[in-house]
Every structure is written in structure tokens, then in C-alpha cells.
Design brief:
By secondary structure, this protein is mostly helical. The chain has eight helices and no strands.
Amino acid sequence: MPDVEGFDEFYRGSRQRLLGYVFVLTGNLAEAQDSVQEAYIRAWQRWSTISGYDDPEAWVRVVASRIAVSRWRGLRSRTRAYLRHGAQESIPEPSTDTVEVVAALRRLPEEQRIAIALYYLLGMPVAEVAREMSAPVGTVKARLSRGRAALAGLLTVVDLDEEAADA
């Protein structure tokens, strides 16, 4: 069983120093907080070992600084990629038809929605959809059939509502 009180005491006694240290390294309070928090999580997971060290704070300090540097390197790599390849092309807004279909799909029961997405959007065969959903093939076929019928009704209702609003 971990020494909860010992860890709490260690945390309370060292957190501000470590946060200040990592803040100086990163220049960003949020990044420093995230890095220090992650280091303390790792320390807690290994507290039975770390608590026996001569200087547990040194261990957490090294881990927190490595986490901060690792995040900084990742950001630097993403920045280089952005500069090399340019900004991501803008993605066009979805059409009103797409929005209507998504809204109708949201109204279906989850099992029907998943079966329709796997079968029609990902192009998976019915047998594979059945394996993915841990359901018999007949059940998947029924879900697809009921889902299509429900979608047809929902999409027709949407169209009739729009026509009534236009009139």
C-alpha cells in the first residue's frame, strides 16, 4: 500500500519549487503546470521506490524537465513541418444535405447508427460489421434495414418541414 501521507507531505513541500523551476525552463505557466503534474503522477506511481531515494525531489525535477523538453521538441517539430508544408488547406463547410443526414443519424439508436456507419461509410462487409459489433450477421442485417427505413422517414420529414416553411 502506498505511503499516501508521505507522498502528500512531499508534494506540499516541493510543488511550488518545482513549478517555479519548470516555469523558468518553459516560460509558459500552463506548460510548466502540465509537466510538473505529469511528473508527480509518475512519482506517485513509483512512490514506494522513489520515497527511498536520498532526494526524491531531484527525481521529480528531472522527470518534469524532461517532459517539458519533450513537449517543446514536439512543438518545434510540428512548427518545422508547418513551415515546410504550409498551412493546412481550408476544409469546405458541410453541405446542408450532409448536416441533415448527420442530424438524422443522431436520432437513430446507437446500434443502428454504428452498423450504418461501418457498412456505408467505411464500406465494411456485413460479416465484418457483425464481428466488429459482436453481433450475429442477421442482427446486423436487421439493424441496417431498420436504420435505412428510419433514416428515410427522418429525411422525408425534414424535407416536408422545409417545404412547409417555404410555403
